[in-house]
Structures are given as C-alpha cells and as structure tokens.
UniProtKB/TrEMBL annotation, chain A:
Keywords: Endoplasmic reticulum, Golgi apparatus, Membrane, Protein transport, Transmembrane, Transmembrane helix, Transport
Transmembrane region(s): 84-102, 114-137, 149-168, 174-192, 218-236
Lineage: Eukaryota, Fungi, Fungi incertae sedis, Mucoromycota, Mucoromycotina
Protein name from the UniProt record: Protein YIF1
Location (main, coarse): endoplasmic reticulum
Species this chain originates from: Hesseltinella vesiculosa
UniProtKB/TrEMBL annotation, chain B:
Topology in membrane: Multi-pass membrane protein
Domain of life: Eukaryota
Protein source organism: Hesseltinella vesiculosa
Protein name stated in the entry: Protein YIP
Keywords of the record: Membrane, Transmembrane, Transmembrane helix
Amino acid sequence: MGMQFAGNAMAQGTAYMERNFNQWINMPALRHYFNVNNVYVVNKLKLLLFPWKHSPWTRSITRTETGQMGGYKPPREDINSPDLYIPVMAIVTYVLVCGLVTGQKGSFHPNNLYASGSTAVAIVFFEILFTRLGCYFMNIPFEASIMDLVAYYSYKFVGIIFTDLTKLMSGPGWHSWVIFVYTGLSIGFFLLRSMRYVILPEASAGPSTLNPQRKRRMWFLLVIAGLQLVYMFFLIN
Amino acid sequence: MQYEQPRSFWSAFGTGGYPDEPPLLEELGINFQHIQAKSLTVLNPFKKVSDTIMDDADLAGPLLFIFLFGIFLMLSGKVHFGYIYGVGVLGVVSIYLILNLMSETGLDWSRTASVLGYCLLPLVILSGFSVVLNLGGYIGLVLSVISIFWCTYSSSGMFTTVLHLNDQRFLIGYPVGLFYTCFALMTVF
C-alpha cells in the first residue's frame, strides 16, 4: 500500500515536471539536432579539422510529397547540417580537460570546473549576441535559428580540446603552438564557409554583385571567422 | 493474536499482519534472481543482451553496488560518499536527457539509473583492488582504463538493445564513458 502510494506520487510529480518543462524548451526542435549517427559524427570531426577540400557546403532541404520545401534535412542525412551532439560533448569534454590540466599541475579544485564551464558558455553567448547585433545593424534578414548559431560557435571547442590534449601529452613548446594555429585556421575556414549562407542570404557567388552593402557583410563574416582564433587563444590553458 | 478488524490501528503494534500479505522481499521489490541475472550479464561482456532484460527497472541492485563502492573507497582512506551521490545524480540526469533526445522511444529516469548502476560493477571491483593495491602507478592506470571500457561497453550495449538504436552505439558510449571516468577518477585519486 505504501509502495503504491509512493509510486503514484512519483508518477504525478514527474508528469507535473514534464508539463512545465515542455513549455520552456521545445523538445521536437531539439530532437532534430540530436538525430545523428556514428558516421555523421566521424565525418564531421574530420571536416572540422580538415575543411579545405570539402566541396558543397549548402544544407539540403527536405521536400514533402507534393514537392514543396519543408525544413532542413536532419544531420543523419546531411553532413553540412549543424548538430548539437558534438557541441554539447565538446563543451563537457573541454571542462573535464581543464580539470585534468589543473590536476596535473597539482592545483585541482572543483570550483575551477565551474569557472571554465561558465567561461565557455559566456563566450558562446557573447558571440551569438555579436552576430545578432551585427545582423540587425547591417539589415541582414536572420533566418537561421539560435540553436544553429550555438552549434556553429561551439564547434571550436573541438579544436581547443585537440590543442590541449597535445599540450598535455607532449608538453608546451612550439609544436603545440603550431597545432593551435592550424586548428584555429581550420575552424575559422569552416565557419567562413558555413556562416556564408547565414550572413549573405543572396547566395550568388562572384564579384559582379560587389556593392558596398555586400562588401560590408563580407567583412563582417571575415571578422567573425577571424575572431575564432582570438577566442580560442583565451580558452586554451 | 486475533483482532476484530485485520487493519485496525493496533495491528501496527502486533506481529500478526493482515491476510493476503505478500512476503517482505516481494513487497519491497527486491528480486534476488533478477539482480543475479543482471549482474552476470554485466560481468560477461561477450554474451548477447536480451531485449527484455530491463523490463523491471529495480534500483535495489544499483544501490547495493553504490554502497559497496563507497565502502571500498572508505576502506582505502577516501570518504567520498557526497561526491558519489552528486556525480551519480548529475550523470543520471544528463544521460537521461541525452538518451531521450537521441532515441525515438524515450526511457524513463529510473530505468537509466538502473542500467547505469548495474554496469558500475567493474568499477566496484576496481575499488576493491584499490583497498590492497596503490592505483597511482602504471598498473593502476591500465586497470582503470580496462574497467572504464568494460563498464562503457556493457552499458552502451544494454542501452542500444533496450532502445533499439542500431548505429549510435559509440555516440551513447561517449557520455557514459565520461560518467564512469569521473567515478574512476574518484577511485584512483
């Protein structure tokens, strides 16, 4: 009798929490970003560290049966689609690697984990703010969702983890700086190619449409991609 | 000991019980056969996991394993019961969120806690070793890496069979591996 009462109470409590949780976080939209498989993750990681030769950067669009355009294809079927699995794992691994590095120096304290985690989240938040303000001031119609931006700006943690692990395993020196510059440049190039479709909505390539507005937008895009190296410098330790 | 009504106030102070009362272990939901079967499934990573193994999500086995883990750590000088509780709850909640986002059919939190707790068994064995050995050196590193892999392999296997995910095994394995790495860090350092 007591066990049944406790079970009922737990079930009612969980149902109450789920009702209120769904009002704040849109679960089906988040599910789209976590719809990944092994092959996608491996290929995306290879793409993040070697983006120079990848050729079509456009995201594929699903078509319904009548031929109309639905949303974008999920990450399972499209390597160019941003996902949230790699960013979430990258941020968690970055916090743990920071803990490992301070542990090796002998000064580990659990408070440091909170500090590195909140720094990481704050930098991503600041970049999203910067992008939205830039789009507002330059009159760029902003069609991507905030989750896309969170995903794009958190991909740099993959490069940061790579640099930190090489520094851990082989000590600080010129080769870890080389790895840092290389990963910074590759993540910058990756963002340049991926964010092009967010910042420059008219996807016509070529110099024939080089009006001042388009030049300003291209500079904005280059600034975003170049700042990645700066943020990465502040995030590695 | 005869009472007028079987469930009157005074029967709380007697030992007669009431008619149709189930035995104590069955009422508490502790089923030793199931605990043994699930522990043997974890300990034998080469056997195929059946689909219905997690149909009853009991938490008695995991609680036993967690207490054993804490007691072994205490015997080797580290009293970390608070950290075990904190890391355990945080890990179970985050893995519950990730599993629900990544799979078609969700999983409720007591089942994830049950799977994660049963697959902690190799780490309990490692902490048993830490009572007699010093795990800071090379042998300890190798043993802890083997235990983490064993735990991650068995729990990702259970999750993929229960949730019918076929090509996401490594993706489930990575956060679960991080979770068990935290426990291993507590054991070694």
